[in-house]
């Protein structure tokens, strides 16, 4: 089962013909900017700048299937299905935010928009929206391989456990293990050397210089 991001990331590589030699140039893929404000043995806390995302809601029971379904709608937006017919180059990571519903899960699949003001609105038939994220802190745990239904929960639990240990005493509410975001950086054609992350908002914790 190939994740469709494959074909997109391939487009990011161009071969330029120079007058004298051929140069293989890897077009830089844009990503949201952050600074690391804390590093631990198995997680980081990052402060992300304000950012814009295009976001597709999918109600479902499978992380993988819902990510694919959302990705397909976002791909169309990036390729001109917006009110300005703007084209966006591929960005990374692709996010899937997961939160439980009484029946199944709510998934928001998101792509980063490399703009510094309000981006164009999506065509209404795509049923997607623009999200503005104000500057905020995110705890991040990385993992390799493919992100899939049978490992994302475990990675999220491991991050929540690390955070509960680290922040013990500073908060009465334990970190919710059932709501999290998976960030995927690589096309599915890359079978090794893959980078994924679990993200959890930590804005409600004090003592790290995070906006609350
Ligand atoms: C993975 O996380 C660890 C702990 O935060 C960090 O030291 C390491 O650099 C990270 N690796 C990558 C590829 O981001
Ligand atoms: C995910 O999609 C595959 C292929 O379409 C399907 O066989 C499978 O039942 C789906 N899984 C869930 C949990 O919906
Ligand atoms: C959309 O296009 C119009 C006309 O070219 C321009 O004035 C406007 O700033 C664009 N809006 C966005 C969100 O890019
Ligand atoms: C994380 O925080 C940002 C900024 O407050 C917010 O827009 C976003 O919805 C939060 N993400 C999740 C998954 O709760
Ligand atoms: C996967 O993406 C990460 C982050 O962009 C990058 O450092 C790594 O080299 C990529 N892996 C492969 C196999 O391209
Ligand atoms: C916990 O709270 C104390 C007092 O407010 C603060 O000094 C410390 O940095 C906090 N620790 C963490 C991990 O936030």
UniProtKB/TrEMBL annotation:
Q: Which domain of life is it from?
A: Eukaryota
Protein name, per record:
Uncharacterized protein
